[in-house]
């Protein structure tokens, strides 16, 4: 894989694999204006090379809750036990690929919160029929009204950008994989299984002197990820059958 070198940061993607918790890691370099101004739109080779693609999956965990609120970039965290597949063969940094949230086949979305119409008056309501088992048997209530189904786009394979690291700007102590799926979901999906295919590397993990600088780099990361995955050898993983085959 290629290395990224500017007057602001220098990082080689073949450095020692990422480690967690008790192992000391070198301090992250600080992103500067000159680094952000010189970032390329497309990075890496024309097709995935080892160790990519990297396969990860697990139930979505609750993180710090600041991605959406503070950074405008909501993220989904994978459990700690799923990280070695990535951390054992890569270094800390930002990566791109595809992700999919797995919903049960008949999973409904959250019921509407709209105000229900008042029940009809007793004068217009016919008495329960003795031949209707639902009305005469309290253990057999009538079926609930149907809810809206999960939109097909929520179930689809979507592009993602992932940060593997300790987020030095927020001084996290433990390694995490924070994944931003580039799709607006109709509901949250905590606890659902998420499948991730990591296809390439964007940049090293960096520290920042301001939140605005961090947000600026995140937006560039998303743009670079989309551009990189427009290349044919990466775009094939967007196909549902190709994606699913990696998890069978």
The helix/strand series, from N terminus to C terminus, equals EEEHEHEHEHHEEEEHHH
What's the story with the biggest beta sheet?
A: 6 strands, antiparallel
> Helix count?
8
Tell me the radius of gyration.
23 Å
Number of strands: 10
Overall pLDDT confidence: 79
Please report which band the strand proportion falls in: under 5%, 5-15%, 15-25%, 25-35%, 35-45% or over 45%.
Answer: 15-25%
Care to give the gist of this entry?
The protein is α+β, with helices and mostly antiparallel strands. It is built from eight helices and ten strands.
Which secondary structure elements does this structure contain, and how are they paired or packed?
Layout: E1 4-5, E2 10-11, E3 29-30, H1 33-37, E4 54-59, H2 66-71, E5 76-77, H3 84-87, E6 93-102, H4 133-136, H5 152-155, E7 158-165, E8 176-181, E9 193-204, E10 206-207, H6 211-229, H7 232-235, H8 240-245
Parallel strand pairs: 3-10
Antiparallel strand pairs: 1-2, 4-9, 5-8, 6-7, 6-9, 7-8
Explain what the structure shows.
The protein has 248 residues and is an alpha+beta fold. It has a domain of 145 residues: Riboflavin kinase-like (Elongation Factor Tu (Ef-tu), domain 3), CATH 2.40.30. It has 8 helices and 10 strands. The protein has a 6-stranded antiparallel β-sheet. Strands 1-2 form a two-stranded antiparallel sheet. It has a two-stranded parallel ribbon with strand order 3-10. A hairpin with a 4-residue loop joins strand 1 and strand 2. The N terminus is likely disordered.
């Amino acid at each position: 894989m290629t290395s990224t070198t500017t007057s602001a940061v220098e990082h080689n993607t073949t450095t020692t694999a990422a480690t967690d918790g008790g192992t000391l890691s070198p301090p992250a370099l600080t992103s500067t204006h000159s680094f952000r101004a010189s970032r390329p739109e497309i990075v890496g080779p024309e097709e995935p090379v080892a160790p990519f693609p990297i396969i990860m999956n697990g139930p979505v965990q609750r993180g710090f809750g600041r991605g959406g609120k503070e950074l405008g970039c909501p993220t989904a965290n994978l459990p700690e036990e799923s990280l070695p597949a990535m951390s054992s063969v890569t270094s800390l940094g930002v990566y791109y690929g595809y992700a999919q949230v797995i919903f049960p086949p008949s999973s409904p979305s959250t019921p509407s919160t709209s105000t229900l119409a008042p029940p009809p008056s007793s004068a217009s309501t016919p008495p329960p029929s003795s031949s209707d088992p639902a009305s005469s048997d309290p253990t057999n209530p009538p079926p609930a009204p149907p809810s809206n189904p999960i939109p097909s786009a929520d179930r689809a394979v979507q592009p993602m950008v992932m940060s593997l690291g300790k987020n030095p700007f927020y001084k996290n102590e433990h390694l995490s994989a924070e994944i931003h799926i580039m799709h607006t979901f109709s509901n949250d999906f905590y606890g659902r299984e998420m499948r991730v295919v990591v296809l390439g590397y964007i940049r090293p993990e960096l520290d920042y002197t301001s939140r605005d600088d961090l947000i600026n780099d995140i937006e560039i990361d998303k743009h670079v990820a989309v551009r990189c995955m427009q290349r044919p050898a990466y775009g094939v993983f967007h196909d549902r059958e190709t994606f699913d085959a990696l998890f069978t």
